[in-house]
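Researcher: Good morning. I'm working through a list of sequences from a screen, and I'd like to move beyond sequence-only analysis. For each chain I'm collecting a predicted structure so we can compare shapes side by side. This is the next one on the list. No need for commentary yet; just the structure.
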Amino acid sequence: MQNSAKLPLTHVPSALFSVGMGLGGLGAAWLSAARHLGMTALGGHALFVLTTGVTVLVMALYALKSILHRDAVVQELHDIATANFFPGLTISLMFVAFWLKSLGLAWSTILWQAAAVGHVVLALVILRSWILRNAEITRANPSMFVPIVGLFVVPLTSAGMEVDADPFAWFCFSVALLFWLALFPVMLNRILFHGQLPRQFLPTLFILIAPPALAASALAALQGSFGLVAQGFFYAALFQGLLLATMARTFISLPFHLSWWAFTFPSAALASAAMTRHALAPDRFSAPLAALLLTVATLISCFVALRTARAFLDGDIWPGPEDIQAEPTPARNEPE
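Model: Good morning. Structure tokens for this chain:
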């Protein structure tokens, strides 16, 4: 395998934006644990330092790619298998701005506004592309939820930004809810009746957890309570997490791919939703459940980060052209 350092910038994929997204989501979960479970905030701050560094590095790499290989970037934006990862950048920046605001940095409000508006623009561009290009159902995969879940992140991170963000936050929440509920049955149809996902896209099944988990947290943030609707969203996310947990052996058997970062953000989003539920609607099980989900999310992120570092050292980090496709593979008997 060719050393990764010698590979051209054309091999830097949009999937790298999901790294900062996963780290930022976990950092937010740890800061929430510090507030609601009495845990140390040091882990959350350390994760956000790492999130900021990774996000800046990926932005720099992709900026160079956009200058030197503009056609490759345009091709990724037009490909349903890769375009959905671009909003990972604006999601990462919203989380970073939220963290910086907690440190008292006033200019973080400007960063958040730019990231939030930028995410809406990206969502418009990508959803418009879906409509105009009419991709085959077999090209669809759960990464299509990424532009939508980012709209849920807007109300989650708008608190304390010292701007009148309520109308904008409700706007983003409403659009996200509409498209999540519309897209979910379509995605189930693709997954159940149109052949298995390619092996490198199987980790994106975890993304199905993110919309209901984020919807629960976002609605609680907007209403200031964890009511029956938010409870319903949370339990829907929890069930999907349990369902995917039964497939653990299948996921572990997969060869490493950057799509493994799809494991991280949804598991962190579920942990954060559990923290919010414990804070606003506690019961005797809420604290242990929140702690358990945070532990699982942390272990998943650590494992994925270690495998990423190993792949980088082995020169096997960047996908080749044959890896960036979304055609279904023939049905097979996966490990039970």
